[in-house]
UniProtKB/TrEMBL annotation, chain A:
Taxonomic source organism: Aeromicrobium terrae
First-listed, main subcellular location of the protein, grouped into a coarse class: membrane
Family: Belongs to the binding-protein-dependent transport system permease family. HisMQ subfamily.
GO cellular component: ATP-binding cassette (ABC) transporter complex
Domain ABC transmembrane type-1: 15-204
Keywords from the named record: Amino-acid transport, Cell membrane, Membrane, Transmembrane, Transmembrane helix, Transport
Record has Nucleotide-binding as a keyword: no
InterPro entries registered for this protein in UniProt: AA_ABC_transptr_permease_3TM, ArtM/GltK/GlnP/TcyL/YhdX-like, MetI-like, MetI-like_sf
Lineage top rank: taxon: Bacteria
Protein name: Amino acid ABC transporter permease
Compartment(s) of residence: Cell membrane
Membrane topology note: Multi-pass membrane protein
């Protein structure tokens, strides 16, 4: 137990790193994932294909491979990112296709008849999306998007391998220094992750309630 | 002024893969005319309706609305669709919007009406179709008959030149059919140009100027309702009427 109290400042700083990583890559993934989804459901053929190819490549490869590739590959191309940005980039590239697919499933869950009705009163594609399809799709996708963000939370732990002092990196450090306190260290670190995941679940529940169709 | 037909289809062909769903369609619907389309399942009635506001594209031929050819895509097409009202079998109300919002969406976003004007007009229309009291509810809280009347009000809010109905009552319980047909009869009497796919013979007899009978993607026969129902010419029509009249 003492190990947690003695190292509280270090742990909270690590918690901050994990949170910041999650927030930045989560927001970027939501943005880029939405763009990808728009490409995939939109009327432009080239974009459909580009979106599909991207999703299939990045969703079907392990995050670790992507991290390794960026970590060792980008410097070879003369591109230098800070550790933080590099990890954010990898997490975003990896998570966006999952967001995209969750959104796309949401869009597809809205009966096509409603989109036809919207077009038949003269709304264009963008207006139909904006006023009819997306507002309903967003409600439908809250639970799956929350799952993706929860997975992202856990995926952030991989960055500990690549030089960022997040919760998982700190756990390894503490384990070295206090081998006898293994269980306490584990419980302490796990609690931080549980808090994050519970916050995401709570946020999702609130959004779902607020957006519920009357 | 020569009377341009409100809807003119000339030499229209449409395939779904190898299936020839619309064959050599020639159709003119005059201003204020009410045309009822009947025919067996799969004969192409829905497809015919849907090509008129280009929810389905055609392979050959031409379609004109009030003398203007159907635009290909984009803004011009959206504008034209705004002039062609459509009522679907499954109502297709916007589930996340209130009844009033369903009716005002088009006027506000497409016609750029002010919210106040659109609301006022929506309430008038909802009054006319008998559901003013439900204006603040959501579609799921209404019966099928009520939802379909909202769908009609939503189409009317765009002041369409012509209204298309694709089996508007066939998803409804019998006791709700009449309330929807009554609204449609009123519209017909008010001079609206209408193309109505329906098997409701009562409606055809009271409101239609002409009945089109379709089979296998063709318009096989057309006549006044009276002539058509008492004296069908083609064997296909006789056969079909024999089947539906039994019920
Ligand atoms: N999107 C589509 N793709 C492929 N085939 C289609 C499509 N829509 C309709 N069809 C086929 O085209 C034919 C005509 O269909 P349509 O819906 O126009 O018939 P209908 O006369 O309205 O029939 P019903 O009385 O059952 O509504 C049918 O054989 C149908 O299976
Ligand atoms: Mg049909």
């Amino acid at each position: 137990m003492d190990v947690l109290i003695d190292n509280a400042d270090v742990l909270f700083r690590a918690f901050g790193v994990t949170l910041k990583l999650l927030l930045v890559s989560g927001l970027l993934s939501l943005l880029f994932g939405t763009v990808l989804a728009a490409m995939r459901v939109g009327p432009v053929r080239v974009l459909n294909v580009a979106g599909t190819v991207y999703v299939n490549i990045f969703r079907n490869n392990p995050l670790l491979i992507l991290l390794l590739l960026l970590f060792f590959g980008l410097p070879k191309l003369g591109i230098h990112f800070s550790y933080f940005n590099l990890n954010v980039l990898a997490l975003t590239l990896y998570t966006s296709p999952f967001i995209c697919e969750a959104l796309r499933a949401g869009v597809n869950s809205i009966p096509i008849g409603q989109a036809e009705a919207a077009r038949s009163i003269g709304l264009g594609f963008t207006q139909t999306m904006r006023h009819v399809v997306l507002p309903q799709a967003f409600r439908a996708v809250v639970p799956p998007v929350a799952s993706v963000l929860i997975a992202l939370t856990k995926n952030t732990s991989l960055v500990s391998i690549f030089g960022l002092l997040d919760l998982t990196a700190r756990m390894k450090g503490l384990l070295n220094d206090y081998p006898s306190q293994l269980w306490w260290i584990f419980i302490g670190i796990a609690l931080f992750y549980v808090v994050i995941v519970e916050l995401i679940s709570l946020g999702a529940a609130l959004l779902e309630r607020r957006w519920r169709i009357a | 002024m020569v009377d341009t037909p409100m809807v003119a289809m000339r030499g229209v062909q449409k395939h779904f893969g190898s299936l020839h769903v619309l064959q050599d369609i020639e159709l003119e619907v005059a201003r204020g005319e009410v045309v009822v389309v009947i025919g067996p399942s799969g004969s192409g009635k829905s497809t015919l309706c849907r090509t008129i506001n280009r929810l389905e594209t055609i392979d050959a031929g031409s379609i004109e609305i009030d003398g203007r050819p159907l635009p290909e895509e984009g803004k011009a097409l959206a504008d034209l669709r705004a002039d062609v009202g459509m009522v679907f079998q499954s109502f297709n109300l916007f589930a996340h919007k209130t009844i009033r919002e369903n009716v005002t969406l088009g006027p506000i976003r497409v016609r750029k009406a002010s919210k106040a004007d659109a609301d006022r007009r929506a309430d008038e229309l909802l009054e006319r179709v008998g559901i003013q009291a439900q204006a603040d509810k959501y579609p799921a809280q209404l019966s099928g008959g009520q939802q379909q009347r909202v769908a009609i009000a939503r189409a009317l809010a765009m002041d369409p030149k012509v209204m298309l109905f694709d089996e508007p009552t066939s998803a409804l319980d019998p006791e709700m059919i009449k309330e929807v047909l009554d609204v449609m009869v009123d519209l017909a009497k008010g001079g609206m140009t209408m193309i109505v796919v329906t098997h409701e013979m009562g409606f055809a007899r009271t409101a239609a100027d002409r009945v089109l009978f379709m089979a296998d993607g063709r318009i096989v026969e057309q006549n006044t309702p009276d002539q058509f129902f008492t004296n069908p010419e083609s064997d296909r029509a006789k056969d079909f009427l024999g089947k539906i009249l039994k019920h």
